[in-house]
Amino acid sequence: MDTNALVNVKKVSSETIVNSDEIHSCKTPMEELKSIKLCDMKVPMIYKGNYLVCKVVKNPLARICTRVGIHDLNDNFAIVDLYNFRYNLDDVEWISPGTIFIIKEPCVRDVLKYELKAIDIFSPTDVIFVDPADAEFLDKIGAKKWYESMSKDAEVWKNEANEFFKDGKYEKAIFLYERAIRCNPENPILYLNKSMACLKTGAFYMAYEAAKHGLEKGGDREKALYRMGQAAYGMREWKKAADHFLEVLKEFPANEFASKELKRATSRLTEERNGKFDFKSIFVESKKEKAELDVADYKGPIEIANIPGKGRGMIATKDIKEGTLLAVSKSFASAYEQDLPVNLIPEISEQVLTPTNVKAKELYDLYSGDDNVPNDEIPFGIVDAFRIKNICRFNCFGFQDKDGQNSFYLHIPSSYFNHSCLGNAFNSFYGGNVMVIHAAADIKKGEEICFSYGSPYTAYLERKKKFEKWKFQCDCKLCETDANDKLCSKRDQMFEEFEEYVKANKNDPQKIRETYVKRSKFQLTLSRMLVSLASLHSDIGNFSTAIQYLEEALTLMDGPFKYGLNISQTCVNLALCYAPILNIQKAKEMTKKAFKYSLCTDLDHFKTLFPYLSVLI
Ligand SMILES: C[S@@+](CC[C@H](N)C(=O)[O-])C[C@H]1O[C@@H](n2cnc3c(N)ncnc32)[C@H](O)[C@@H]1O
């Protein structure tokens, strides 16, 4: 047997992993599974109905997954590849040699070169970690031989856990607080400390439960209630959070932290109930690196309905005016390109384990690609990596910041809007983390509300290809017009050449204009060229030509796609061209128009976005 396989973790792309059709997630409770040993396992095979008890014997290695060498209860060796447990793969401490764990329904394959068995784990909830000091549980799974006799003094483990906590090693601290609790289940401090450590790792459900137990065991009420409030806030249960902070203040009125937190929770409640958001502050905050914005989700006069041929979609519950705020959502999970592999499963795993299972239900209800497979109910506390991977594929939004860095976001409520290139809604992002959807037109009660999944500027064939990946065809008027227009792809090609050409010539888009002779509608490519040309001219101070191009572009943009084409920015550009030639009246007119189309809450918000226009408004 060659254990060198361990040093040979393959470099594979994240796609290779998450696309595997063999991703299996165990949905059966541990009590219903039977133990199995490596010698009884044939390869390749998924051992449904079984579990394997193992112990890490070889140091972990990490590339795209974390790989460890394990022994089973017969001391037979195998490789275990753990996917989707961590963002930060450099962190391997969580599975160091000596770690005992159970693999529920293991997927076994062979590594021919090394004549070894290998087990792939994709869903974090397929693993149960076992404390070597937990004699009772080890006995239950037939692993008594791995029992390590350790101190039974809870204080010893509490002190050790506190040290880990101080070093920022929260998971290790949680593991030891749990050991301490097994030694002395009546000590409330252990629960409260565990709760604090859980808050640090974002395991809010566990934090809430631990603080509640601490309270029930007679622990410090101020601390317990405050932590319950913090945990509820983390779970985005604003009312519950506010109630706990109020309870703290009632008994301990001098607690300044609780009064601050109560204010925050109340703001979230107002956002959630009335759609009253401070978009200016959200904008300022979103400009910070890897900003984590603190906002509630809001659902305006809209509801989910079945839309023939499109699955589910959003419809208006009453007549809606253009510019109305329809929805705000904070991303459920996010990943940054620089943190390769891009993988939302570790974060989603934390979120899925909430007490009421509401979040898990909302997540698993999202479209996962196969209309023929009913979205069967996933039991509470189960991370189904395969389903989540598909949900991400059909519902994630990519976002590129100004430095060209990509990030990926899953927004739950916003995932129910279908696409239309000429959508009657417009979605904008605050750093990607927060998605805001406004009505881009007047909408009648019962009408479907769609927004464009990309820029309407995207060339027709490119759009079509993109939609094919998402398994649909767009039947909007723009796609219909483009599909019937023989000059469409020629024009798109000309545009590409044009971009190169204008860079060199700063010339007129006459040739493109000519391609529209037979089509007066949707002259998007022309407007795009005019905007490009205008910017070249304004850069060299040729403002009157820039104005001529921008005014023409503005007329062409004024259609159902005006928000998608960022008409507000074109008005800003015009204002910035009128101002230097001292046509202040026009500059003010354009600034006013820019504000109208900016969807800003108020002038203050607008001025934060465009401070250099402040004097014109
Ligand atoms: C983000 S989901 C939108 C909600 C989805 N319709 C549902 O039932 O949950 C994206 C998926 O919706 C469907 N879809 C979106 N826009 C569509 C359109 N214009 N026509 C047909 N299907 C569309 C496609 O299946 C696409 O992959």
From TrEMBL:
Gene3D superfamilies: SET domain, Tetratricopeptide repeat domain
Name under which the protein is recorded: SET domain-containing protein
Pfam families (UniProt xref): SET, TPR_1, TPR_6, TPR_8
Domain SET: 300-454
Zinc keyword on record: no
TPR repeat feature ranges: 154-187, 222-255
Swiss-Prot/TrEMBL keywords: TPR repeat
Keyword Acetylation found: no
